[in-house]
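Fold this complex.
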Amino acid sequence: MTTFSMTDTPRAGRAIAALGALSAVLLAVATFGVFLVAPEDAASGVIQRIFYFHVSVALVSMLAFMVACIAGIVHLRRGGDGSDDVSLASIAIGLMLAVLTVITGSIWAKAAWGFWWRWDDLRLVSFLLIILLYAAYFVLRGSADESRQARFGAVYAIFAFAAVPLSFYAVRTARSFIHPVVVTSKGADMPGTMLVWFLISVVAFTALFVTLLLVEVQQRRAARALEDVKRRLEARSATPTGGH
Amino acid sequence: MEYVVAAYAVLWVLLVLYVVSLGMRTSRLARQAELLSRLAAPDDASPAGD
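Structure:
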């Protein structure tokens, strides 16, 4: 009897489950530490606690876009579905995290400075442009011919990533905005205990990203394998049996 | 404090929704795999020539 699995091997499935459990534990530890252990910021008070997850999610979204770019380069050099799966899944997860960055940042801005959004803040606007840029990726993929989707997607992922460091450095070149700069070339501008919980948050969200990426990639492989089996079954049922 | 709770609530709700959508997709694929296994089973089990 033919059997199918959602993962390549049971070992891969167990590895993803273990990584998922580790991510959940790390996120729980980070939440506990951020709310109950990390010291309150003297200047901005309790509102500053948004910083831990807001910046972690922003950094991991940029990491996701970088992974998509690297996977795009690998796809153009070697071809194959694997790197395209990684690129597509990375952009989907990165986009979700980027949207979360803007929402949590907007709530923070309202609490700290009294407004939801400022169009003259270069970093806010450049991050919004990144979201629009990567949302357009799915439009491009959807509109391209199926045989060219992976190639177009790879090229787009590489060029779109150029906007990510531009956004990152925009805050350092412009001066007329409200967004604070915490991580500078001289290191993190925060006390040691805050830095520890911030780093734990970054590690937790990175683990979550890797888990989601592996699940998405395995799902796409499984879906492709099922489509292949469907086609073979259809071809088999369409073939005349040749009875006498 | 309300703003902090709101930010965390939005973050977790969106993340949970994303994970739930992944779970739903996985169960849909599992159902398809189960169905295809059943469809393929009689052909695989039957002798090659009668």
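The interface with chain A takes residues 1, 3-4, 6-8, 10-11, 14-15, 18-19, 22, 25-26, 29-30, 32-33, 36-37, 39-41, 43-45 of chain B (CB under 8 Å).
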